[in-house]
Design goal:
By secondary structure, the chain is mostly helical. 74% of the residues lie in helices and 0% in strands. The chain has one domain: Winged helix-like DNA-binding domain superfamily/Winged helix DNA-binding domain (Arc Repressor Mutant, subunit A). Helix 2 crosses helix 4, helix 4 packs across helix 8 and helix 8 crosses helix 9.
Length: 198
């Protein structure tokens, strides 16, 4: 979760006084979370990098509209989620949804080997793990952008229901409903995978 109070003052100071070095520090502090959230939603490294740049451009350009009613972190998450969903919509209208292989962020989430798993996997095991990753990613991409965003904010970013509700501008009940639906749909889509697992 982002820390907001001192950061909001620093960011406001950086923008109002055109203090580039302060703004750069703020970007450095938030960049990783913005990228992770964007990647979690769009599942594409290049798009996530583009979104990250666009988010900070929007933060810089729209800082005068930040009223402080929500925390700075919520405001930045909201910009990130909305920009990511816009990217998905653009991608959908171009009919060019692409799945990339070998993404570092995916591997951190999905390739967390347990203590009993040897580090030197056989070619068969590596292929099998790659297939599992691919099926999980395909199932995840079948969720709507809103369900995907909610799942990423809760399961990867660790936000509370209220923080997600503030970010997505909906009620906590809607957040719980979206999470329930997203988890059930993932379970249903991945049920054949569980049956195949030796």
């Amino acid at each position: 979760m982002f820390k907001s109070n001192k950061r909001a003052v620093k960011l406001d100071y950086a923008v109002s006084d055109n203090n580039v070095s302060e703004f750069r520090k703020v970007v450095e502090n938030y960049r990783k979370r913005v990228y992770q959230t964007a990647y979690g939603i769009v599942q594409n490294v290049d798009d996530a990098k583009d979104i990250t740049q666009e988010v900070f451009l929007k933060v810089f350009e729209k800082m005068d509209t930040f009223k402080g009613e929500a925390s700075l972190s919520t405001w930045i998450y909201r910009i990130t989620v909305n920009t990511s969903i816009d990217m998905l919509r653009k991608r959908k209208t171009r009919s060019s949804v692409m799945l990339q292989e070998g993404l570092n962020y995916d591997e951190q989430i999905l390739d967390n080997p347990g203590p009993s798993q040897p580090h030197n996997s056989s070619p068969f095991e590596k292929t099998y793990q790659g297939e599992i990753r691919k099926k999980i990613k395909e199932a995840f991409m079948k969720l709507s952008p809103e369900h995907r965003s909610t799942l990423v904010l809760r399961e990867i970013e660790g936000l509370s229901y209220q923080e997600i509700a503030d970010t997505m501008e909906c009620s906590p009940g809607t957040v719980m409903s979206r999470l329930h639906y997203a988890r059930k749909k993932m379970q249903k889509l991945l049920a054949p995978l569980r049956e195949e697992t030796p």
